[in-house]
Amino acid sequence: MTTRITVDPVTRIEGHLRIDVEVGDDGKVTKAWSSGQMWRGIEKILVGRDPREAWLFTQRFCGVCTTVHAITSVRAVENALGMEVPVNAQLVRNIIQTAHAIQDHIVHFYHLSAVDWVDVVSALDADPKKTAQLAESLSDWSLNGPHEMQAVQDRLKAFVQGGQLGPFSTGYWGHPAMKLPPEVNLLGVAHYLQALEVQNYANKIVAALGGKSPHIQNLAVGGISNSINMDSQSVLNMERLMLIKGWIDKLDHFVKSAYMTDVPAIGAFYLDWAGYGKGVNNYLSVPDCPQDAAGTLFDLPGGYIENGDLATFKPIKTHNDAYFRDGVAESSKHAWYHGEAALHPYQGETEPNYTDFQDEGKYSWVKAPTFYGKRAQVGPLANVFVMVASGHEGAKKYLDEAMGTLRGVSGNADIPIAALESTIGRHAARAVRCAVMMDTLKEQWQKLVDNIAAGDTDTFNPPVFPKGEVQGLGCHEAPRGALSHWVVIENAKIKNYQAVVPSTWNSGPRDQNDELGPYEASLMDNPVADPKKPLEVLRTVHSFDPCIACAIHMVDTEQKEIVKVKAL
Ligand code: NFE
Ligand code: MG
Q1: Percent of the chain, pLDDT > 90?
Q2: Is 475 a catalytic residue?
Q3: By 3-state DSSP, what share of the chain in percent is helix, strand and coil, each rounded to 5?
Q4: Is 330 in the pocket of ligand 1 (CB under 6 A)?
Q5: What pLDDT is stored for residue 561 in this prediction?
Q6: Longest distance between any two alpha carbons in the chain, whole Å
Q7: What is the pLDDT of residues 144-173, one digit of tens each?
Q8: How remote is the CA of residue 128 from the centroid of ligand 1, in Å?
Q9: Is the CB of 439 under 6 A from ligand 1?
Q10: Which of 39, 329, 392, 473 could form a disulfide with 365 if both were Cys (CB 3.0 to 4.6 A apart)?
Q11: What is the mean pLDDT of residues 7-11?
Q12: Which secondary-structure segment (H or E) carries 17?
């Protein structure tokens, strides 16, 4: 007999995601469906507007990856206009997006997914001294001492004695799939609480340059609105840059000494999860951190890898590389829109056609993107593989380091890199990427200081809109993966706007050929010990860091009525 499990909504994500699985007699998933249960109207709002203000709207796609749709949008319009952007503007944007990525990765692991693996209640049974010994043997993170661990356990006891677990009240505590010893659970809880403080330093960097966080204010098509003047107290000056440097150093210590060791150390107890969750293993990633005004040089490489084979790596060299630009299409065969054919984003159509949830038909507001007709997984795992395949030194170094910790703590020296193609591997890759982002952030900061010291204070080139039609593509390797915005501009007004978002790539339903999307494929064969507490399903889905708010933002280019809603 098969059991159908519906998880709706999946929590500890952004937006509304429904996951359905069928579990066979052997307790393993045999069928899976991923369904985006919300839709928005932001692309529609953009039609007819001034392209210079699009970023202010697209940034509101999401409350989590807040900077990314702003930066990608100005890049798309600049690309349509064939514009150059001052180097200072590129570097300030790079600092903002990199700091944001670090904040996002820290929060995802510690606050949105660690409790799938760390049993908070079991931490009450830990010996805090042993936890500290273990922690100090793994790294030099400064808050690993016995007093700290005792204080965390006391705090946890107070929660329990008070009859409430506070932020930990709804976990699957005591679930048979929880395998960490109490001491490691206490370590996880301690770093969960410390990470709440640390992630704030990344937000401060974003706010110091962007005006506020979430949702930065300092962008412009053509550059940034920050002024640079070393002799002024009220604009971007050395004092402000040194303040940012102080926050960068604090983040660096946590990322390198806590996050980079916690994930492989916890993963070492869950090596069985290196055998689940592979799913779609074509990997797509876009280049990022442009270094020159024309956007021809990038610090972080992009590319495509087929079937998990790094030897198939093909580079994507710029944000307008024809190889990427011509390969993307989106299908609505199983999404609640009219039309079955996969369409290129410049020709994208989004005519709603809601049908209720049909297992074999339409069942999601998310479209199914493909790259040259194939499904692709995006995100930190794709990004790390692409960086390693293209010879990025930092990625290779941190991947080696993480694999070393994993092999050391598990006592299994033979764990291959291919183990990363899994549920637990996506977490490990995110930690590795975060360490790479940390070094990238430091480099962007230093380059900005050097560029200003060399006498360049330019931050803005004014855009000029031609008569007639132009089209542009902007890309960004966002925390959840490859992001692209596609804009068609006619007589200085937006004619069409499409965003093909990381969570669309990963959470999309079956495509035009009925092939499963990455979430769906990754759930196949996952064990489910207790259908009433489908922790394993959450583990695999959470490992992608879902964001459904980003994934669905519909447009009706013909401006017909889309749906009637009752405002109560
Ligand atoms: Ni709303 Fe997002 C990211 C984008 S969606 S979080 O990262 O773009 O995957
Ligand atoms: Mg879209």
Answers
A1: 87
A2: no
A3: 45, 15, 40
A4: no
A5: 38
A6: 75
A7: 999 999 999 999 999 888 877 777 777 888
A8: 38
A9: no
A10: 39
A11: 92
A12: strand 17-23
| Measured CA angle at 277 (ends 185, 191), to 5 deg | 25
Ligand nearest the Cα of residue 549 is: 1
Q: Is 478 in the pocket of ligand 1 (CB under 6 A)?
A: yes
For residue 352, report the distance from its CA to the centre of ligand 2, in Å: 13
Q: How far is 379 from 429, CA to CA, in rounded Å?
A: 9
Q: Which residue has the tokens 């005792």?
A: 150
Angstrom distance (rounded) from CA 551 to CA 545: 12
| Nearest listed ligand to the Cα of residue 478 | 1
Question: In a mutational test of the pocket of ligand 1, which residue from 17, 38, 62 has the highest number of ligand atoms less than 8 Å from its CB?
Answer: 62
Q: Could you tell me the sign of the dihedral formed by the alpha carbons of 443, 449, 455, 457, in that order?
A: positive
* 65 catalytic residue (yes or no): yes
The pLDDT tens digits of the residues spanning 333-348 come to: 999 999 888 999 998 8
Closest ligand 1 atom number to CA of residue 14:
1
Instruction: Based on the residue annotation, tell me whether 547 is a catalytic residue of this protein.
Output: yes
Q: Give the distance (Å) from ligand 2 centre to CA of residue 205.
A: 29
Pick the CATH number of 3-550 from 3.40.190.10, 1.20.1600.10, 1.10.645.10, 1.10.287.130: 1.10.645.10
Known catalytic residue: 14? Answer: yes
**Cβ of 184 less than 6 Å from ligand 1:** no
Q: Where are the domains of the chain?
A: 3-550
Kindly report the number of other CB atoms within 10 A of residue 201's CB atom: 21
432-469 pLDDT, tens digit each:
999 999 999 999 999 999 999 999 999 999 999 999 99
Whether 68 lines ligand 1, by a CB cut-off of 6 Å, is yes
Mean pLDDT of 75-99: 98
In this prediction, residue 553 carries a pLDDT of 59
49's tokens: 């507007």
Active site (annotated) includes residue 434:
no
Predicted pLDDT of residue 43: 82
